[in-house]
Amino acid sequence: MIRRRDWLAATTAACTLPTASLRAAAPRQRLRAAPATVALAGQTAVAAWAYEGRVHGPTLRYRRGAMLDLELDNALPDATTIHWHGLRVPNAMDGVPNVTQPPVAPGERFRYRFALPDSGTFWYHPHLGTPEQVARGLSGALIVEDEEAPEAEHDWLWLLADWRLDEGGGFAEDFYDYMDVSHAGRLGRHVTVNARSAPHEQRAAPGERVRLRLVNAAPARIFALRFAGAVPWVIALDGAPLAQAQALGDAVLPLGPGMRSDLILDLPREPGARVTVHDVFGRGQRELAVIAADGAAARATAPRPAPRAPAANPLAEPVLRDAQAETLVLGGGMMSMSGWPDDPLPARLARRLRRMGGSREADPVWSVNGRAHLTHDPAHAPEFEVERGRTVRLTFENRTAWWHPMHVHGHSFRELARNGRPLPGRALRDTMLVAPRETVEVAFVADNPGDWLIHCHVLEHHAGGMGTRFRVSG
Fold first, then answer.
1. pLDDT digits over 225-253, tens only?
2. Among the four 180, 184, 217, 456, which has the fewest Cβ within 10 Å?
3. Where are the beta strands (DSSP E) in 41-75?
């Protein structure tokens, strides 16, 4: 914890997004987490938890190499922290309560201060009571701008989420529900883009080029996006630039919770043309967004050249020859015959009594290598330890009937193989979507010392045990 003095409040400036942009000009900034009444998902007065009175909170923008210096001011009724999802931060800044920092109690403050080594699209959210705090509205985007950004007339940010509201228009208070925890997680009927009900609508001139930054900020919903009316190019995944832009074509773009994708989209040159974006994950499809080419016809008639990807970030390349091999077996959950963690009767009774007293906690129904990681307990021994600078070849073996977006803290990894087949492009990521009964291999250089989490970013799955820790020593 830090002292409550000498703090400078940041100012917020309006921007084209339904969030504000906090610039790095101020030496220190404030981010206040507090209850707020907001307009959300077509409802005019929802009692949410919000950063600076907004769902999804201010969009933080910096240049690569800048220093983030921000004070979290907790005006919530519960303790909280901030995790900087995808950023390679020092361990003490990672926001994991009781592992990298103490929880920030109601009325207290905590200072986050670290350099930003990588450009890209990232986001921030609590890492304490996460299934409830994110579902109540606490999240926001963090953009580290490229030194030489790809050419585009527009830079748009879409935060995708869903919300479970009751008949009165407030949040359904069934957080940590057993059915949610043991199945697909907390899914809400109200799907939004930038906190506004889908389908989201935006306009640009015919023939203009748009950089579209997509962030899945939902607690559990997986999106699978299909574009019609224009062919997008993928230029970055999870903030990490691709070696070269890849045309998506007719393929579907998967986006699990916590995952991000940066696209370049050329609008049709004919006035009135429309680009539609559908979510086709699961059964049926949902119209998520519409982009209209509005205005006079474009002067140019020839297609624009393929976009270039942003410059690569300065990450060490994995060396597979002498890599340390580790396997994480994902088990448990409904319709799974193995991997359910032990839950002795005394523990179940004690948990039931705590719930009667007002505690919020999930039942252990998921496991990593047979063990449930229910809380950020510092006594939870690391699953593996690796010397600083060594490459880890990590296998996720999903023995469950459900999808799991597996997130590694403090590091980015290379995709290697899926079900034994090498993945083309070997993209860099920090969150990997692993399908039911699937095995995925990745590799990363363990160059960030400390204890780090690996967990499923379906927030109810992590609360129900699907997580672990690893230690980088030296």
1. 999 999 899 999 999 999 999 999 889 99
2. 184
3. 43-51, 59-63, 67-74
